[in-house]
Amino acid sequence: MFTLRVAKAQPEYVTYKERYKVDLPLQMAECEANYVRLSKLVAREAADEIRFIVTTANQPWLHLLKITERSPYTTTLELSRTAMGVASEWLSMPKLTLRMYHDAKLAEVLAWEGHKRLRPRYDYPNQSMYQSDEKYQLNRFLGEWLNLCLAQGHDANELAPF
């Protein structure tokens, strides 16, 4: 008369992705390293605009590090890059807005190309199609960019490397 239905287990090929969890120590370590890298670039000059050239693959790129706001505990900066000589728009780098926290000795990306107020974690998919760890990826990108600047950069007015 009545038959009992047996609950079937999910097939083996169906997997559920675990929700992204922010690795706070990893993010703080990246922000600390970015602070040290930025300090090396900013400490050289007291000016509000620092220009330097980085040459990669025989293509010189002019980098501009512009201080937009100074306060006792924070400094807000913009980092951008433009091609010198043969310009290619498809290879342009984003303009990053950065903040250095002098009391905590941290530096993080606040915004890039109009994308502001980055959250530490996003559900995926989302309206802007950010990755789950978008903020960490941007801070890591900043770290790689600053490492390149420190390793291969030189002052725009001189040919001496950093």
How would you describe the overall organization of this protein?
This protein has 162 residues and is an alpha+beta fold. The chain has one domain (24-153). It has helices at residues 24-42, 134-152; strands at residues 49-56, 59-70, 74-83, 96-101, 106-112, 153-155. Helix 1 (24-42) runs parallel beside helix 2. The longest helix has 19 residues, at 24-42. The chain starts with 23 loop residues before the first helix and ends in a 7-residue tail after the last strand. The mean pLDDT is 82.
Report, as a whole number of angstroms, the end-to-end distance: 85 Å
**Average predicted local confidence, pLDDT:** 82
Number of strands: 6
| Secondary structure: helix percent | 10-25%
**Lateral arrangement of strands in the main beta sheet:** 5-4-3-2-1-6
Largest sheet: 6 strands, antiparallel
Radius of gyration: 22 Å
**Count of DSSP-assigned helices:** 2
Q: Shape from CA axes?
A: globular
Strand content: 25-35%
Strand pairing plus helix content: what structural class? alpha+beta
> Low-confidence segments, ≥5 residues, pLDDT <50?
none
| N to C succession of SSEs | HEEEEEHE
Number of domains: 1
Protein name: Cytoplasmic protein
Features:
162 residues, alpha+beta, six-stranded antiparallel sheet
List the SSEs and their pairings:
Elements: H1 24-42, E1 49-56, E2 59-70, E3 74-83, E4 96-101, E5 106-112, H2 134-152, E6 153-155
Antiparallel strand pairs: 1-2, 1-6, 2-3, 3-4, 4-5
Helix pairs in contact: 1-2
